[in-house]
Amino acid sequence: MSKRTRMLILKKKKVFLLIGILSFLCFISAIGFLLFYDYYPVESRVSNVERYASSDSSDYTTVGWLRVQGTNIDYPVIYAPDYDLSMKTDDFVWTEVSSDRLLNKVNIIGHNILNLSTHPLVTSENHKRFEQLMSFVYLDFVKENKYIQYTFQDKNYIYKIFSISFVDHDDIGLYAFEDYTKDEMNDYIQQSLQDSIFEFDIDVDEDDKIISLVTCTRMFGYGNDIEFRVDARLVREGEMKMNYGVQKSDKYQEIDDIMKGGENNV
Question: CATH number, domain at 106?
Answer without folding.
Answer: 2.40.260.10
